[in-house]
Automatic annotation (TrEMBL):
Its main location: cytoplasm. Homodimer. Its EC number is 6.1.1.2. This is Tryptophan--tRNA ligase. GO terms for cellular component: cytosol. It comes from the Bacteria. A motif ('HIGH' region) lies at residues 22-30. Residues 233-261 are annotated as: Disordered. Belongs to the class-I aminoacyl-tRNA synthetase family. InterPro entries: aa-tRNA-synth_I_CS, aa-tRNA-synth_Ic, Rossmann-like_a/b/a_fold, Trp-tRNA-ligase, Trp-tRNA-ligase_bac-type, Trp-tRNA_synthetase. It is an enzyme of class 6 (ligase). A motif ('KMSKS' region) lies at residues 262-266.
């Protein structure tokens, strides 16, 4: 079995896996939190990116009327953002049955208490009181997520700083499986606490700009300490069937929405990747600012202003300097400042929206990309399942 692809220079590429729930058209927060990084990763890794349509059912099973449209919109946004089917595999989770076979197999060995103690289990039940989440599907969400990951035997799962812990249960489940079935005494590739702490520190100290001083950090992390498990040695029991994936910390700036809270669909404060320019300008014009700057003549403080948080991500260094200078001396008004921000956001989204228009006009091409991605994902996932079945003894 082969688990690495070869580039032209025969350098093995490590595998990366990540997915996103189809919640409808994606916004700037989704883009900067994940897609922007995925687009970069596809050039350096063997990448599998999926639309987690089954996961959408864990909380929204009672109303699936928008699911089909949402899947289409997310696929369009994936391609618009720059995911290139020549460089990565894009697929739908529900089209790869191996996810569910592995999920069922892992369910046999996963203690109930591991799932019950996942912090988001209780938190989300509290937050989404209007939904009945006392279901097996919702409790088993982290398990399905683990199967989604492990069935591709990836080296890395790219996550933002606040999600690093989410990968841990996947690692624990893989370790248990390997211990029970694959002759692995304690699990192989272990990310040490020191490594993780160093990665977190470097991200914390990084400037939040995506003008990409963070690139340096990404490169450093990419060049990290993970060692690829030699697949040829798995049969001998030396290496695990389900290698523990490592966390790949990627820059994930917290973007405020127009009301100053975290940009989120549920708050209705988003700027969509597909919003037309007038709408982007109107939304930003109404964005909250430094609450202490009441009059035009009052100096403001960019460090407490959500508009400046977006400038830090999208505007040039020169613009940021002008904003700070103009704001703190009352030399510019908030409307002017927001206009500069709108210019930067519109410029960032222009190529994305152009690609989106192309793919909207070519639905058959989009469908073909997804079909090919589904086939490639099935092929890869089935290789893992063969090994899993042999290890469990039900081949
Ligand atoms: S000038 Fe800009 S940074 Fe200053 S308070 Fe107004 S919007 Fe915020």
């Amino acid at each position: 079995m082969t688990t690495e692809v070869q580039t032209e220079t025969t350098t093995p590429r490590k595998r990366v896996l990540s997915g996103m729930r189809p919640t409808g058209r994606l916004h700037l927060g989704n883009y900067m939190g994940a897609l922007y990084n995925w687009v970069k990763l596809q050039h350096e890794y063997e990448c599998y990116f999926f639309i987690a349509d089954y996961h959408a059912l864990t909380t929204d099973y009672a109303d699936t009327s928008k699911l089909k449209d949402n899947i289409r919109e997310v696929m369009l946004d994936f391609l618009a953002a720059g995911l290139d089917p020549k460089l990565c595999t894009i697929f739908r989770q529900s089209r790869v049955p191996a996810h569910f076979e592995l999920n069922d197999m892992l369910a046999m060995i996963t203690p109930l208490s591991w799932l019950e103690r996942v912090p988001t289990y209780k938190d989300q039940q509290e937050q989404l009181k209007e939904k009945d989440l006392a279901t097996i599907g919702f409790l088993g969400y982290p398990l399905l997520q683990s199967a989604d990951i492990l069935v591709y035997q990836p080296s890395f799962v790219p996550v933002g700083q606040d999600q690093a812990a989410h990968v841990e249960i996947t690692r624990e489940i893989a370790r248990r499986f390997n211990h029970l079935f694959a002759g692995d005494p304690g699990g192989a590739s272990v990310v040490t606490a020191d490594t993780l702490r160093r990665q977190l520190d470097s991200l914390e100290n990084a400037p939040p700009s995506h003008g990409y001083s963070n690139d340096r950090i990404v490169r450093e992390i990419f060049a990290g300490e993970t060692s690829i498990v030699d697949p040829s040695s798995r049969a001998s029991g030396v290496n695990p069937v389900l290698p523990e994936p490592q966390v790949l910390l990627t820059p994930s700036p917290k973007l405020p929405g127009t009301d100053g809270r975290k940009m989120s669909k549920s708050y209705g404060n988003t700027i969509l990747l597909s919003d037309p320019e007038p709408e982007i300008r109107a939304k930003l014009k109404s964005m909250v600012t430094d609450p202490a700057r009441v009059r035009r003549t009052d100096p403001g403080n960019p460090d407490v202003c959500p508009v400046f948080d977006l400038h830090k991500v999208f505007s040039s260094e020169e613009t940021r300097v002008n904003v700070r200078e103009g704001c703190t001396t009352a030399g510019i008004g908030c409307i002017q400042c927001k206009g500069w921000l709108a210019d930067a956001v519109v410029a960032e989204l222009a190529p994305i929206q152009e690609r989106r228009r192309y793919f909207e006009a070519h639905p058959q091409e989009v469908a073909a990309i997804l079909e090919a991605g589904n086939a490639a994902a099935n092929k890869r996932a089935n290789q893992t399942m063969q090994e899993v079945r042999v290890a469990v003894g039900i081949d």
